Amino acid sequence: KQWYQRRVRGSLNCATLSQYYVTMNNYVSARHTLACASSVLSNVQESSENSQYSDESYDNEKILKTRADIERCWIKFCVNLLKDSVADLEASDLSDKVSKITEMKNTFEDEEDKAEELEEKKEEEEEKKEDEKIEDLEAGEKTSEKTAEEEEEEELKKRKTFSDLVDIEDLELLRITNVESGQYEELVPGELCKTYEDARKVFKAGSKFVENAVKHYTFDGYVTDYAEIKQDLSSLYKNLAVFDTDESRKCKMHKRRVDTLTELVSPLNIQHFRQLCRQLRFELGEVKNTMVSLKYSIAAEMPVDQQNWKKINNLCFGAIQEFENFCDLLRDPNDKFPETLSNETVRPYVVSQIYIARLYGKFRPADTAQKLVFLAKAETHFKKALEYYDGHLNQCRNMDLKEEIDVAREMAHFLPRKMERIRQMGN
Q: Do 321 and 352 touch, CB atoms closer than 8 A?
């Protein structure tokens, strides 16, 4: 009896430890501890079938729940691995763009300007060295140049993964040697994904873990857990799509996210799961908005007939509906919109209004009159975002909304003049 309890509890503790390694970007050790957890629990289940204690001490429900919990830890591993891989990919792309811009700039610079610039830099460096010598003599402190190097080194360390910072021999010490975990470690890669094929392996493994986890955490009885697992599946699709270069396939992946989240939110009781409904409606709005952008990108490369433009318009309308549903869920039980929102809903609300405004601008209208109606609605929603932001400056100051608000101000100023020009052209 105690043997079963220790093994079951130990496997879950091992899986829980993996989540710490995930937060440290140490995916090698995270995968190893998860593989050990799966291996130990599998042995427990096999041993129980021939155990004389199987009827009285072996709790099958406990085993099934622990297995589902370990599967969920595997899901979090896959979600975070893909998420960090996307961040690494985007950072590499940004670095490449900066390098190309710098290269182009240097190519077209005049040689005389280059020489002059080098001379100025040389003089500045000499002056800087003289200043640093004086500071060292007076204060006995390190030079600012060295400090800058240290800061750069610290920033570089932050971007590195745990495996980059720890010696391989040290990582071997983190391994659990008395558990056969090889077959489970082969299920999913332990390094950041560099290609679509790498990302697809992680996705396939993650989706299999989702399939297994919801066998225990069903919608009936475990609504919150079931919803979180399905949201993780949506995240897997989202991050896999980043690695795919085919925009049509990207659309299909986001469509699966829409299907997954819609199936989840539709039967939920709003009174009991209001916060969860808000999360799902907002995410659905973002997914559909992304699909609209992809459809426009595809339309820019090939001719689109009237039927397809109608589909894009319907998709715009669907995204707007999701954001409006989210905003409606912010109302109190008396259907009154609060004067001041809670801190966690401020940014989503302001961003939702800006999303809605932009989506109205993306509609392809049937005529000029309809175009003016859509532009007027876009102006209204830009103003709603500005109205809340300007009326709650203290609350919004630390919400990282500056970029969105600057765009909203510019558009709220520009749209009336655009509508006036359209009216004049119509007349």
A: no
Q: Which residue is listed with tokens 């640093």?
A: 132
* Beta carbons of 29 and 62 less than 8 angstroms apart: no
Q: Are 330 and 341 in contact (CB under 8 A)?
A: yes
For the chain, the straight-line distance linking the first and the last C-alpha, in angstroms and rounded, comes to: 88
Alpha-carbon gap, residue 316 to 310, rounded angstroms:
10
CB atoms within 10 A of CB 377: 17
User: Which amino acid, residue 75?
Assistant: I
198 vs 193: CA distance, rounded Å: 5
Q: What is the DSSP string of 365-383?
A: -SSHHHHHHHHHHHHHHHH
Give 376's Cβ-side CA count (13 Å radius).
9
Q: Where are the alpha helices (DSSP H) in 109-180?
A: 111-139, 144-159, 162-165, 168-173
CA angle 39/200/182 to nearest 5° reads 20
Distance CA 257, CA 235 (A): 8
Global pTM?
0.79
Question: What is the model's pLDDT at position 183?
Answer: 80
Look at the block and give the residue holding tokens 């080194």: 153
The answer to whether residue 37 scores a pLDDT higher than 70 is yes
Q: With contact defined as beta carbons under 8 Å apart, do 237 and 256 qualify? A: yes
Enclosing H/E stretch for 312: helix 306-328
50-90 tens-digit pLDDT: 555 554 445 678 888 999 999 999 999 999 999 999 999 98
Name the band, by pLDDT with cuts 50, 70 and 90, for residue 213: very high
CA gap 239, 89 in Å, rounded: 11
Residue from 229, 228, 288, 278 nearest 257 by CA: 288
Rounded distance, CA 7 to CA 37, Å?
9
- Which tokens is 33 given? 């501890």
